[in-house]
Amino acid sequence: MMKNKHFRISLLLKIWSAIMAVVIAVLLLIWGLQVVFLEQYYVGMKKSEFSAVCDQIAEEINRFGYIGSQNGILDLVAKNRLCVQIIQRSGQIIKVEGMPYDCYIHKRNSGVGQELVRRAMAGEITGPLDVWDQAAKTEYLIFCTQKYSTYDEDPYVLLVNQTLAPVREAATVTSNQLAYLSIILVVLATIAAFLIARFISKPIRTLSNAAQDVARGNLDVSVPVKNNDEIGDLCENFNRMTTELSKVNRLQRELVANLSHDLRTPLTMIRGYAEMIKDITGDNKEKREEQLDIIVDETNRLNRLASDALDLSRMQAGQVMMNKTVFDGAKKLHDILSRYQLLSETEGFTFVCNTPDSCFVYADEMRIEQVIYNLLNNAVNHIGEPKVITASLVVQNGIAYISVKDTGKGIRPEDLPLIWDRYYKPYRKTDRPGMGTGLGLSIVKAILNGHNAPFGVDTALGKGSTFWFGLTVYDETKPLPNEEHTAQKEEGANGSANAGKN
C-alpha cells in the first residue's frame, strides 16, 4: 500500500497568503471606518454640535427676550445654516429666522412642525432628531423642545432645523472607491508576493541543490553569498559546514591510512618473529626469549593504539570523568622523565627537569600523567639537534605551570591553528620514524579542557616549541570542591587512557 504524500505548499503561496492577510485586514479596517462608522460618527458629532447651538439660542432668549435676542440668533443662524422658529404655547409663531427654503418643516411638510410642537409641549421630545427626506434625498436635524424665558416670563417651544451634509452619498462613493482600491491592492499583493518569493526562493533552491550534492558525497560544493541578511548567513554557514566536512573527511582518510600503517608494522613483526620462533629459534632459549619480548612489545603497541581509539570515542561521547585528587606535581614530572633514561643511553637525548622540591596540585593524576607523556612523546618525535628536552614547573598566582620545551624546527604558522585538531599530523622529513596517529595533542586538549585548565604553545620556526598548561595549586587553608569528579566538558574533545604519540 502506497503512503500518502504530505500536501506541499509552495513558498509563493505562503508569502502570498501572508501578504493577502495583511491587505484584507487593512481593507476591512478602512471599510469599517469609512463606510460602516462614517455615518454614525458624523451624525453623532453633528447632533452634539447642533444641541450646543440650540442651547446658545435658548440662552440668548433667556437673557435678552424674544426681541433683544434677534441679533445673536441671526449670527448663530448664519454661521450654522439654521432655520429657527419660536412658538408660544398657544401655537402662535413669534419669530422665524434663517432659511425656510431649505427647511424640512417649511418646504416639505408643515404638518410635521405642528406635530413636533405638540409633542414638545407634552414633554415627549427632549433632544435633537434626525429625519431622512426620501423625496429630496436629504437628511435633517430637528431640535424641538419646550423652554421657559425668564426675561419674558413665558414658556415657548424652540424649533430649529439644520440640513445635514449628504453623508450617505459620500459613503456610497467611498464604497465604490474602496472596491476599486481592493482590486488594485490584491493585484499588487500578488505581484509583490511573486517577486518576494522569487527573491527568497532562488538562494534557497541553490542551497537545496548544494545539499543534494553533499548528500551524494560531493563535499567540495559551495554556494555564492549574495545577500547581506539571514539567507546570506545561511549560505556562509553552509559553506563553512562543507569546508569542515571536507576537512574531517580528509583527516579521517589520513587517520585510516596512518592506522593501517601503524597496525601493519607491529602485526608484520609479530608474524615474522612468531614464524622465526616456530621454524628457526624455537630450541634456542636466549633467541626465543628475545624474540618473544619483541612480540610482547609490539602487542603492547597494538593495545595502545586500540586504547587511544577507544578513549577517543568515549571522550567524544562525553563519558570520561576527571577523578581529581591532591598529588605532588613536581615529583610526578621527575618520575616520568626518569622513564626516558633509555632514550638518553641509546639515542643521545638529554632530558632537563626544572622544578621546585615539591608542588602539590589538585587534578586527575592519571590524566595529567597522560598529558605529560603525550607532550614529551611529541617533543621526542619532533626533536632536532641538539636533542635536548626541558621539562619545567613554575608556580605563579596559585597556578602551577608545567611546560615541555624541545629543540625542534618549530611549528609553521599555517599548522599552528590545527595542531590541537583530531587526526591532524603534519609531516616533515626531520620527524622521528614511528610517529603516532595524530591523537596526542587532541588528547591533551580534551583532558585539560576537562580540568578547565589553561594551555597553549609558544613556538618559532628554527627555535623549537614550548607546550605548557596550568594546574590549580593545592592550598591546605582552603576547602576542596565538593565534587569528587569533574565531567569532561569540551565538545567533541578527544582523549586517551594511555600515553599517545603525536
From TrEMBL:
Keyword vocabulary terms for this entry: ATP-binding, Kinase, Membrane, Nucleotide-binding, Phosphoprotein, Transferase, Transmembrane, Transmembrane helix, Two-component regulatory system
Parts of the chain that traverse the membrane: 12-37, 178-200
Source organism, top-level taxon: Bacteria
EC annotation from Swiss-Prot or TrEMBL: 2.7.13.3
Region spans: Disordered: 480-502
Location of this chain's protein in the cell: Membrane
Histidine kinase domain boundaries: 258-475
Classification via SMART domains: HAMP (SM00304), HATPase_c (SM00387), HisKA (SM00388)
CDD domains the UniProt entry points to: HAMP, HisKA
InterPro entries cross-referenced by the UniProt entry: BphY/WalK/GraS-like, HAMP_dom, HATPase_C_sf, HATPase_dom, His_kinase_dom, HisK_dim/P_dom, HisK_dim/P_sf, Sig_transdc_His_kin-like_C
The keyword Transmembrane helix appears for this protein: yes
Catalytic class of the enzyme: transferase
Start-end of Basic and acidic residues biased regions: 480-492
Molecular function GO labels: ATP binding; phosphorelay response regulator activity; phosphorelay sensor kinase activity; protein kinase activator activity
Protein name according to UniProt: histidine kinase
